[in-house]
Amino acid sequence: MLDWRRLPLSVVYTAIALAYMMVAAALAAWLDTFLPHRWMSVLLACGLLLPLLAYHVRRAFAPMHSLFRALAGTVASYRDGDYAFGLNWKGKGELGRLVDAHNRLGEALREQRQALVQRELLLDTMVQNTPVAMLLVDPSDHIVHGNLAARKMLGHGHRLEGQAFADIVAQAPDAMREALDRGGDGMFTVGDESGSDDGNEDIYHLSRRRFRLNGRLHELVMLRLLTAELRRQEVQTWKKVIRVISHELNNSLAPIASLAHSSAELLRRGQHERLPTALSTIEDRARHLEGFIRDYARFAKLPAPRLQPIEWTRFVAQLREQVEFRADGVQIGTTARFDTAQVEQCLINLLKNAHESGSPADAVTLSLRRLPDAWRIDVLDRGTGMNEAVLANALLPFYSTKRNGTGLGLALAREIAEAHGGRIALLNREGGGLCVSMVLPG
């Protein structure tokens, strides 16, 4: 039996038209013997053959109609993301090529969908199991996604999706909330508010990135717990400090021992005229060693702060006599309780660092803000800021990027802040520069 689907459409159309014309002509010739006029026989023949022609045309094109409905259905499925459908068509010609192309398209879409699902699964596994807490916040300030670390850190293990980011921030510890409210990248410490040195503090690194997702601006907030890593780095730093101290001691003690031996020889020989030079060199080396040990001991043996009421305008005026800066937020008559000498030394170091950062002198600012139960002191500059590596290590003792730096300035500031029961944080500013923020109870 002839299968119309195996024939090209042009052959099908021609065959039906020729068959219809031949049968109509034969029927009209036969009807001429009964009808008086030719045109009446032609009209009657066409009328009699029309239903039969419609039946054969419909039957011939029924498979193609089914194919077109199937094509429309699969296209709708593709639009809905379902690529599991395929078409079976035994015909050749244009329809055969169309079906083959459609099936190849479906196969390509299925492969792409499978690869995409595998990549999404891999990405989700990595995001969920990373120790970095990650939050994706949409333009309406609601959390779109929070990984397992974020749930543990900010949600007590519960899901965070759908919650307002501001509500989550409001429930966070004070230091974390302040860092999140300020925005930008930075480090902060969360621990015992009493200031006791029991090692219960945790150090975090905050990173925030904005990007467009589906045409809308989103924000990715990442919180990384650095406590264990910094503890390991502190051990390595202390080992380095021991090597530095040993080197410095040897550099001073070896010449002192040699000069002492030489002085004894000069005394034995009676060459007293060379003794003052040798003794002067011994004195210089001894005083250098004394200063070196004193500087390091000052950091290692920070005394307990002696708290006393301090008037801010007077304190800021004393600071201005030693280093240049602009003051913001200092109100006449406001007071706080802290150790004047320690906080003054801390802020002098921070302000000098701000001047050495490459910032214009008039952009170095000391900002004072009153919090509900504390004072916040920000030292701001418009220098080069800090990259992530420096930001992660800046508060470590003896870590310095300066050739002749001791690495004690920021570490001492942190010790002073925590000795007062406060905390310190470092954040890069939008537009360039650094913000060193110190919070003191009050």
Describe the model:
The strands form 2 sheets. The chain has a 10-stranded mixed sheet with strand order 2-1-5-4-3-11-12-10-9-7, with helices on both faces. It has a two-stranded antiparallel sheet with strand order 6-8. 53% of the residues lie in helices and 17% in strands. It has 4 domains: 111 residues, no CATH class; 93 residues, 2-Layer Sandwich (Beta-Lactamase); 58 residues; 134 residues, 2-Layer Sandwich (Heat Shock Protein 90), CATH 3.30.565.10. A hairpin with a 2-residue loop joins strand 4 and strand 5. The longest helix has 43 residues. The chain contains 12 helices and 12 strands. Helix 10 runs antiparallel to helix 12. It is elongated, with a radius of gyration of 43 Å. The chain has 442 residues and is an alpha+beta fold.
